[in-house]
Amino acid sequence: MTEHFDLVIRNGAVATPNGIESLDIGIAERRIVALGKIAAGRAEQEFDATGLTVLPGVIDTQVHFREPGLEHKEDLASGTAGAALGGVTAIFEMPNTTPNTLDKAALDDKLTRAKGRAWVDHAFFMGASDANAGKLGELEMLPGCAGVKIFMGSSTGSLLVADDETLEEVLRHGHRRVAIHAEDEMRLRERLALVKDGADPDQHPVWRDVETAVRATRRVLKIARKAGRRIHVLHVSTADEMAILAEHKDIATVEVLTHHLTLAAPDCYKRLGTFAQMNPPVRDQHHQDGIWAALRSGVVDCIGSDHAPHTKEEKARPYPQSPSGMPGVQTLLPVMLDHMAKGRLTLQRLIDLTSAGPARIYNIRGKGRIALGYDADFSVVDLKAKKTITNEWMATKAGWTPYHGMEITGWPMATIIRGSIVMRDGELLGRPDGAPVRFQETIQPQD
Ligand code: DOR
Hints:
Layout: E1 5-16, E2 19-28, E3 31-36, E4 43-48, E5 53-56, E6 58-63, H1 76-85, E7 88-93, H2 104-114, E8 121-127, H3 136-139, E9 145-151, H4 164-172, E10 178-181, H5 185-191, H6 204-207, H7 210-227, E11 231-233, H8 239-245, E12 252-257, H9 258-262, H10 267-272, H11 285-297, E13 302-304, H12 312-315, H13 332-341, H14 347-362, E14 378-388, E15 407-417, E16 420-424, E17 427-428
Parallel strand pairs: 1-4, 1-5, 6-7, 7-8, 8-9, 9-10, 10-11, 11-12, 12-13
Antiparallel strand pairs: 1-2, 2-3, 5-14, 14-15, 15-16, 16-17
Helix pairs in contact: 4-7, 7-8, 8-11
The structure holds (4S)-2,6-dioxohexahydropyrimidine-4-carboxylic acid (DOR).
(4S)-2,6-dioxohexahydropyrimidine-4-carboxylic acid (DOR) is lined by residues 64, 96, 155-156, 181, 278-279, 308, 324-325.
């Protein structure tokens, strides 16, 4: 066993692959090097986790941080500060920035901007378009790239792969799992008249209806099978798609969002109006029950936040001029811990969805579990703490959360990333030192 540690985490209830164990964790050179009883006086730094539960670092594989281009909504510093405050140790960021992330220069620009400013580890998606389809096989292999993202329906920004030919072209270039926003663009256009001249925001799930989502999911599954490509269907919002996806687990993994598990129509539109507007929409209780059932039966592989910040002024525009999306990276873990406290999922399943699942889906190297040799990433939580989520707690430049006023049982007390304590008791510590996430596919010669 290593004689000296940079950090020892003592007396915590540690969530290892074996279950919850009473262990000390020894960390050296940013990795986990010892698990067991560690004698006193052998560490640079000690963290007393008495009464706390030490989870593998939570990885949020779907956030929009708006840099470059729309930094008045969010930037990499504020977005990742929210992640760290919420107990998230790594994020994957989406390509619908301005400009869109469509080539190596745009990816490298994001990686450069993140250096010394990002509080958590990070990777960036490459957007798919008809212009870069033929190059995606190379682009997806670049270090710091989480993979390719396809928007099948228009959402925030202009990224779009609407037709089957382009979709097939994209799926035929490359090998990594492709992340899909499945809403059918043709049906969205056909039905836009329903809301075009103004409507109540509760019409959002009527315009972007169940069939809009089902049609796109069916189309992409068919083409993915034809092209022999694995896909990851993001933010699945309908019970109907879950039944279909359960038949395709050999090629398709599935993400659900905290928002879809927690909010439901019509209540959310009555309370929040356009602030509850997002794509795909929050639907009624039947669909919320359907995605919970799929989560319990194992059809769901991970939970994302789809953190999509827009300012209060932008969100307050009359529907449908109001932009779609809600912040969420900071509230993902507390809200899911509260669901756990209410008996809706087990701690084991939560860890599977927030750490092990992302690692499995995206072939992340050295993250996703507490085990020897893995990165020393931990979300340290108090499962009994009772707190209230408030707008004031939010680091996002948007300055609001749909969960303002929600009382929560279970709270992130510390965020530890590659052995550095980045957040403790609600305070950010040190300086931003997030690094690019590494993937099995993108092994570099120097590794
Ligand atoms: O509601 C959404 N907002 N859905 C998306 O797909 C994009 C996101 C955003 O970037 O605002």
